[in-house]
């Protein structure tokens, strides 16, 4: 498994240069490291910020599970989408509002065909809200199918 949480820095994270704003580190409430966040007031409505995780050495014809923590806090904060490199057109995961300010867990199955997925992109779309944030943390890639809850 690969642990791509932002505090350890073992993974290759890249800010997209063609988007409207960057994701930035934010301190965790518990004080143990940080997560990546986009505050609600950054940019204009429908602006996008993309954070890309470059994946290397994934075996062809095998399954992986991408597990991550996310939070959409605040009224009309926007959308969080996840894209896989070999399927750029449609998101493989999307969430547009939080029921509360709590962190939740997202899981995405990655099936490798002959061509392997070489990146995962977390895309934040700015909503109408002025308070809150979209956050991502604890991104982990494990071999095999996603575990049931």
Automatic annotation (TrEMBL):
Source organism superkingdom: Eukaryota
CDD domains: MAM
PROSITE patterns referenced in this protein's UniProt entry, alphabetically: MAM_2
InterPro entries according to UniProt: ConA-like_dom_sf (IPR013320), MAM_dom (IPR000998), MAM_domain-containing (IPR051560)
Pfam annotation, one family: MAM
Residue intervals of the MAM domain: 2-148
One Gene Ontology CC term in the entry: membrane
Protein name: EGFL6 protein
Species, as recorded: Polioptila caerulea
Gene: Egfl6_1
């Amino acid at each position: 498994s690969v642990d791509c949480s932002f505090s350890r820095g073992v993974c290759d994270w890249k800010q997209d240069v063609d988007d409207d704003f960057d994701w930035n580190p934010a301190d965790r409430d518990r004080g143990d490291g940080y997560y990546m966040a986009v505050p609600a007031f950054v940019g204009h409505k429908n602006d996008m910020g993309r954070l890309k995780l470059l994946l290397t050495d994934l075996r062809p014809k095998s399954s992986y599970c991408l597990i991550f923590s996310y939070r959409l806090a605040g009224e009309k904060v926007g959308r969080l989408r996840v894209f896989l490199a070999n399927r750029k057109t449609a998101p493989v995961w999307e969430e547009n509002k939080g029921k509360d300010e709590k962190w939740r867990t997202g899981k995405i199955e990655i099936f490798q065909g002959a061509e392997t997925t070489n990146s995962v992109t977390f895309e934040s779309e700015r909503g109408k809200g002025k308070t809150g944030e979209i956050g991502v943390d604890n991104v982990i890639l494990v071999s095999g199918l996603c575990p049931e809850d």
